[in-house]
Amino acid sequence: MGRFDQERREMIGVLKEKGITDERVVQAMANVERHVFVNEPFVNRSYEDTALPIEKSQTISQPYTVAFMTQELDPQPGAKILEIGTGSGYQAAILAEMGCRVFTIERHMELLLEARKLFERLGYRVATRGGDGTVGWSEFAPYDGIIVTAAAPEVPDALVKQLSEGGRLVIPVGDLDSQSLRVMTKLEDRLEIKEVRGFKFVPLIGKQGWNGK
Ligand code: SAH
C-alpha cells in the first residue's frame, strides 16, 4: 500500500460529500496521486481539500475545484481537450487519466518543464506548449473541451472560436478576489451559459487576460 492511499481515499469521500457524482471523475481522482504534483514542505497536505502553493507564486488547484470543473467539462474518452494554465500538471493528468487527448499551455516555462517531466514519468501523453494561452492553440483546433484554470477578466474570443460544435468551455470569470465558474456550451446558433459562483483562482495573465508579469 502506498504512503498516501488512505488519505487519498478520504479525499474521495470528501469530494463525494461535496457533490462530485461522476464516476469517471471520481475514478480518475482516486487513481492520480496528487502528492506527486506537490512540492515540499506541502507534500503531507496533498490530500487536504485545499489549493497549495507551487513555484512562481502559483497554486495547484483545490481537489474539489479540479473535480467540479472536470465534471462540468464532461469529457468523453478520446475527447480533444485544451487546458490553459498547466501549473503543476495535476488537472492535465486527471484528464489524461480519463482517456482525453490533452493539450496544455503554461506561461511560466519553469512550471511547464516540471509538469512535462511528470507526464513523461507517469506515462501520460500530453502535448505541452509555453506561452500565452488566452490566444488558444489554433493548430489543433477545434477542441471538444477547453478548461481555463486561472481567473479571467473576460472570456477570450479565441477560445470560443476554437471550440467544436457541442464543445464546452469551463472558465472562471470575475475580479481578482472572486470569480464565477462559467460553463459555456457552443451550440449551432448560440452559446448556452451556466454560472456557478464562489471560486478563487490565480490570475490569467495575457493578451485577453490581466496585465502582469
Ligand atoms: N491546472 C493547474 C493550476 C495551476 S494555477 C494545476 O492543476 O496545478 C494556474 C496556472 O495558469 C499558473 O501556473 C499560471 O502561471 C498559469 N497562467 C496564467 N495565465 C496564463 C496564460 N495566459 N497562459 C497560460 N498559462 C497561464
Describe, in short, the structure shown:
28% of the residues lie in helices and 27% in strands. The chain is of the alpha/beta class and 213 residues long.
Query: Per CATH, what is the topology?
Result: Rossmann fold
Distance between the termini: 43 Å
The strands making up the biggest β-sheet line up spatially as 5-4-3-6-7-8-9
Q: Radius of gyration, rounded?
A: 16 Å
Give the integer mean of the pLDDT values: 97
CATH superfamily: Vaccinia Virus protein VP39
Task: Catalogue the unreliable spans.
Answer: none
Using the 3D structure, state the CATH architecture. Answer: 3-Layer(aba) Sandwich
What is the level 1 CATH name?
A: Alpha Beta
> Tell me about the biggest sheet?
7 strands, mixed
Task: List the domain count as a whole number.
Answer: 1
Order of helices and strands: HHEEHEHEHEEHEEE
| Count of alpha/pi helices | 6
Oligomeric organization of the protein chains: single chain
Number of strands: 9
Structural class: alpha/beta
Strand content: 25-35%
Describe what this molecule looks like in 3D:
With 213 residues, this protein is of the alpha/beta class. The chain has a single domain, classed as 3-Layer(aba) Sandwich (Rossmann fold). Helix content is 28%, strand content 27%. The chain has six helices and nine strands; from the N terminus they run ααββαβαβαββαβββ. It has helices at residues 5-17, 23-31, 63-73, 90-97, 109-122, 157-161; strands spanning 52-54, 58-60, 80-84, 101-106, 126-130, 143-148, 163-174, 179-186, 191-199. Strands 5-4-3-6-7-8-9 form a seven-stranded mixed beta sheet. It has a two-stranded antiparallel ribbon with strand order 1-2. Helix 6 links the parallel strand 6 (143-148) and strand 7 (163-174). The longest helix has 14 residues, at 109-122. The protein starts with a helix and ends in a 14-residue tail after the last strand. The model has no long low-confidence stretch (mean pLDDT 97). The structure holds S-adenosyl-L-homocysteine. Residues 58-61, 84-85, 87-88, 90-91, 105-108, 111, 132-134, 149-150, 202, 204-206, 209 line the site of S-adenosyl-L-homocysteine.
